[in-house]
C-alpha cells in the first residue's frame, strides 16, 4: 500500500512505524523505571465475579493498572505486550499476585468465607522455568489455599503453545489451582486440543455476550459453549455483561458466573472492599457465612 503512494506514502508509513517504535521504547523505559523506583505507579483494579447459580459474589478478577505521572493512565492492552517483549512481565505478574493476594486474604477474613482470586497470566510468564514454584511459594507465604486461586490464560494463546501450556498448567492444577481459558470463542481451538487442556473454567468472551441483545446467533453460540463446557465438566464465566437483559439471559442459559459493568466495574481496592461488605450484608441469611 505504502509503495503505491510513491515516495511520500513511504515516508508517511516509515514515520508511523517510527512513532510506534518510539512509543514502545518510551513505555519500556518508563515501566522499567516504575518497577524499580516508583512501584506506586502500578495498582490493581478489582472486578467482582458473581455466582449466577449461588446468588452471591464468589470472587474478584485482578486487573493491572498503570498510572504514569506525565503520560497518564496507560491501559493494560498497551503495557502488558510491552512488558512481555521487554522481559518485565514476570515482575508485573509477581506484583499483581502479591498485592491482589494480600487484598483477597483481608477480604476473606472480613466476609468470613474464602473469596476466589482470578489472575491473568500471559504465556511469557508460563515460559519462566520456576513459575510453578514461585506461584506456590507466594500462595503459601500469603496464606492462600490453592483452591482460592484461578489463573486465566487467553484461549488463543494456549493454542499457540500447547505442549508448554499443558505441562506448566497441569502442574499448577495438580496443586489445586484452577485454570480458566480467557476470551473463549475468539481463538480457533480444535475440540481435540481443547479436551486435552488442563482446564476448570471457560470464560465466554465479551463479544458473544454483547451480541445477546440483537443477534439470536450469539445466543446459539453461547448455548453451544455452555453445552461444551458441561460435557467437559467445566464451569463457565461470562465476561463483559453490560445490561440486565444479558445478565438474565445468561442466568437462564445456565452460565455459572458473570461479571461486567452491569454488576460492577473494575474498581480500586478501597471501593471494592466496601462493595463486597455492602453486598454481603444484603444477602438473605441462608447465604451469609456463619
Ligand atoms: P481480560 O482478562 O479479558 O479482562 C477483561 C477486560 O474487560 C478488562 O479490561 C476489563 O476492565 C474489561 N471489562 C470488564 N467488564 C466489562 C464490560 O462490561 N464491558 C466492557 N466493555 N469491558 C469490560 P482491562 O482491565 O483493560 O484489561 C485488558 C486485558 O489486559 C485483560 O483482558 C488481560 O488480558 C490483560 N491484563 C490485565 N491485567 C493483567 C495482568 O495483571 N497480567 C496479564 N498478563 N494480563 C493482564
Ligand atoms: Mg481475564
Ligand atoms: Mg477476558
Ligand atoms: Mg482479554
Strand fraction: 15-25%
Low-confidence sequence ranges: none
Number of E strands: 9
Question: What shape does the CA trace take?
Answer: globular
> Which small-molecule species are bound to the chains here?
ligand C2E, magnesium ion
| Major sheet strand order | 1-2-4-5-6-7-8-9
* Measured distance between first and last alpha carbons: 66 Å
Radius of gyration: 20 Å
Architecture overview:
An eight-stranded mixed barrel has the order 1-2-4-5-6-7-8-9, surrounded by six helices. Strand 6 (178-184), helix 8 (191-196) and strand 7 form a beta-alpha-beta unit. It has 290 residues and is of the alpha/beta class. Helix 3 (89-111) runs parallel beside helix 12 (269-281). The protein has helices spanning 6-37, 76-85, 89-111, 123-127, 131-142, 155-160, 162-174, 191-196, 206-211, 216-231, 244-253, 269-281; strands at 42-51, 56-68, 72-74, 116-120, 149-154, 178-184, 201-204, 235-238, 257-258. The mean pLDDT is 93. The longest helix has 32 residues, at 6-37. It has twelve helices and nine strands. The chain is globular and about 70 Å long.
Provide a compact summary of the structure.
The chain has 290 residues and is an alpha/beta fold. Helices cover 52% and strands 19% of the residues.
Amino acid at each position: 500500500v505504502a509503495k503505491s503512494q510513491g515516495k511520500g506514502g513511504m515516508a508517511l508509513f516509515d514515520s508511523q512505524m517510527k512513532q510506534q517504535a518510539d512509543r514502545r521504547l518510551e513505555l519500556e523505559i518508563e515501566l522499567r523505571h516504575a518497577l524499580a523506583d516508583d512501584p506506586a505507579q502500578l495498582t490493581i483494579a478489582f472486578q467482582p465475579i458473581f455466582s449466577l447459580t449461588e446468588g452471591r459474589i464468589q470472587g474478584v478478577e485482578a486487573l493491572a493498572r498503570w498510572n504514569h505521572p506525565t503520560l497518564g493512565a496507560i491501559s493494560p492492552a498497551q503495557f502488558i505486550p510491552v512488558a512481555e517483549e521487554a522481559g518485565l512481565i514476570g515482575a508485573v505478574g509477581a506484583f499483581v499476585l502479591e498485592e491482589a493476594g494480600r487484598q483477597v486474604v483481608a477480604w476473606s477474613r472480613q466476609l468470613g468465607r474464602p473469596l476466589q482470586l482470578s489472575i491473568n497470566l500471559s504465556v511469557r510468564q508460563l515460559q519462566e522455568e520456576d513459575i510453578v514454584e514461585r506461584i506456590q511459594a507466594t500462595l503459601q507465604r500469603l496464606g492462600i489455599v490453592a483452591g482460592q486461586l484461578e489463573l486465566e490464560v487467553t484461549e488463543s494463546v494456549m493454542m499457540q503453545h500447547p505442549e508448554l501450556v499443558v505441562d506448566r498448567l497441569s502442574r499448577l492444577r495438580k496443586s489445586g489451582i484452577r485454570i480458566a481459558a480467557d476470551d473463549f470463542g475468539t481463538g480457533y481451538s480444535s475440540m481435540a486440543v481443547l479436551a486435552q487442556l488442563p482446564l476448570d473454567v471457560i470464560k465466554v468472551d465479551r463479544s458473544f455476550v454483547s451480541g445477546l441483545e440483537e443477534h439470536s446467533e450469539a445466543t446459539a453460540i453461547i448455548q453451544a459453549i455452555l453445552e461444551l463446557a458441561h460435557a467437559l465438566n467445566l464451569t463457565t464465566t461470562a465476561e463483559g455483561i453490560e445490561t440486565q437483559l444479558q445478565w438474565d439471559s445468561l442466568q437462564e442459559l445456565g452460565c455459572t458466573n458473570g461479571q461486567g459493568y452491569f454488576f460492577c466495574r473494575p474498581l480500586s481496592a478501597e471501593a471494592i472492599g466496601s462493595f463486597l461488605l455492602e453486598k454481603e450484608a444484603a444477602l438473605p441469611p441462608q447465604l451469609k457465612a456463619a
